[in-house]
Automatic annotation (TrEMBL):
It comes from the Bacteria. NAD(+) binds at D30, K35, T86, T121, E158, K269, R334. It is an enzyme of class 1 (oxidoreductase). The keyword ATP-binding does not apply. SUPFAM superfamilies: 6-phosphogluconate dehydrogenase C-terminal domain-like, NAD(P)-binding Rossmann-fold domains, UDP-glucose/GDP-mannose dehydrogenase C-terminal domain. This is UDP-glucose 6-dehydrogenase.
């Protein structure tokens, strides 16, 4: 099928590449000429495992094209996807200016019937706005072209996006138009294996489904962080509690890891946006507000543990920080917990030696040159001349360090483990002090 995708950001690029990989003829349109030119040469602007060879192979095979020429893109596609950004505006609502700009461009140029598909995460009711924007442009041109707007939210995880796209657990198609449903079913047939994965529903339900999925996952995390904070107070170990509840299939093992808070481009923005959507519709989403506020304080929790150890005086101390990205396997630092921690450490007069396997460049872009930050080339280099270690992102390579060596490197011999990667006993037996998240056991003065 002939597909056009507006936006070669994370979602647009991964989706376009996967659709090309199963044989569709895909044109990706972006207004950023340098990015388009780079993509055509195989330069991928994001770090995503497995994506680069797929982009190159499908581009070389002539199934994946990149262009800034919007009219040509619009002429190409039977299905036109909108996959541009929806950043939060001042009150946390999703800003639709980019989505609606694409809609107007489509309206200015379509000549034959098309199905427009919203892939961007957009508030309930956006398909109607996109429909109205296209219709207004058509009216201005004085032409009539049949078109419809469907919703088809993505459920990609950064770091595993290619896999999520190639092997989706569900494909949500929001449309009450049989032609659109049929086209989207044909488009996704190659991904719909073994059992039916396509769930067809009305547009508004599809739009809400995306927010509900992310809000549910964020809720699980904030819930566990809340229980972790209780565990810390009452002298229990959240890791034991986690194992004690995860085996109940109604609860499940996924997304019950306490930590330094959730970050990234989706959860923080989507929980906020859903709360605003609710508010604008006249309903106060108290649970979502709580999820957001628990996460906000959780991002400051590592620093609280640091203060618990050092008192108020960390001035002049040097902290080795392992992990800057908001999660492993990405270089993305949007809303990352590391950003809050670094800001707090600097504010308190401490210095940072940080290592992240992928995010150094991004960190440099965000923080620039400063005296109180050294971006190191390895986990071990970050430890040199440091007083304490803080683990912020759970990269695999941080999971089993040589604690004796860590002990030797750190002047104050203390680890703050923001992702509960280590067993307190193992760390403590190497002569290090240990602070984890929700591990009240190791904080109790009467602990064995
Ligand atoms: C998320 C959703 O998982 C995905 O389905 C949606 O399409 C986009 O948003 P992503 O933001 O890439 O994907 O990352 P994810 O792996 O979900 O992690 C989000 C954050 O939650 C990370 O900061 C992670 O460290 C944190 N997290 C996750 C926890 O703190 N505990 C957990 O148990 C799981």
């Amino acid at each position: 099928m002939r597909v056009t995708i507006f936006g070669t950001g994370y979602v647009g690029l991964v989706t376009g590449t996967c659709l090309a990989d199963v044989g569709h003829d895909v044109v990706c349109v972006d207004i950023d000429a340098a990015k388009v030119e780079g993509l055509a040469r195989g330069v991928i602007p994001i770090y995503e495992p497995g994506l680069e060879p797929m982009v190159k192979a499908n581009h070389a095979a002539g199934r994946l094209h990149f262009t800034t020429d919007a009219p040509a893109g619009i002429a190409h596609g039977d299905l036109i996807f909108i996959a541009v950004g929806t950043p939060p505006d001042e009150d946390g609502s999703a800003d639709l200016q980019y989505v609606l700009a694409v809609a107007r461009t489509i309206g200015r140029h379509i000549e034959r019937p098309v199905i427009v598909v919203n892939k961007s995460t957009v508030p309930v009711g956006t398909a109607d706005k996109v429909h109205a924007a296209i219709a207004a442009e058509l009216a201005q041109r004085g032409v009539e072209v049949a078109f419809d707007v469907a919703s088809n939210p993505e459920f990609l995880k950064e770091g595993d996006a290619v896999n999520d796209c190639m092997r989706p657990d569900r494909i949500v198609v929001g449309s009450s138009n049989p032609v659109a449903v049929e086209k989207l079913k044909r488009l996704y047939a190659p991904f719909n294996r073994n059992h039916e994965r396509i769930v067809v529903m009305d547009v508004r339900s599809a739009e809400l489904t995306k927010y509900a999925a992310n809000a549910m996952l964020a809720t699980k995390i904030s819930f566990m962080n809340e229980i972790a904070n209780i565990a810390e107070q009452v002298g229990a170990d959240i890791e034991m509690v986690r194992q004690g509840i995860g085996s109940d299939p109604r609860i499940g093992w996924h997304f019950i890891y306490p930590g330094a808070g959730y970050g990234g481009s989706c959860f923080p923005k989507d929980v906020q946006a859903l709360a605003r959507t609710a508010q604008h519709s006249g309903y106060r989403a108290r649970l979502l507000e709580a999820v957001e506020s628990v996460n906000d304080s959780q991002k400051g929790h590592l620093f609280e543990l640091i203060q618990r150890h050092y008192g108020d005086d960390v001035r002049g101390k040097t902290f080795a920080v392992w992990g800057l990205a908001f999660k492993p396997n990405t270089d993305d630092m949007r809303e990352a917990s590391s950003r809050r921690l670094l800001a707090q450490l600097w504010e308190a007069g401490a210095k940072v030696r940080a290592y992240d396997p992928e995010a150094a460049e991004e960190a440099h872009r965000i923080f620039g040159e400063r005296d109180d930050l050294v971006l190191c080339d390895s986990a071990r280099a970050a430890l040199a001349d440091a007083d304490a270690l803080v683990v912020v992102t759970e990269w695999k390579q941080f999971r089993s360090p040589d604690f004796a060596r860590v002990r030797q490197a750190l002047a104050d011999g203390v680890i703050f483990d923001g992702r509960n990667l280590y067993h307190p006993d193992e760390v403590e037996s190497a002569g290090l002090a240990y602070y984890g998240i929700g591990r009240g056991r190791s904080l109790r003065s009467d602990a064995p």
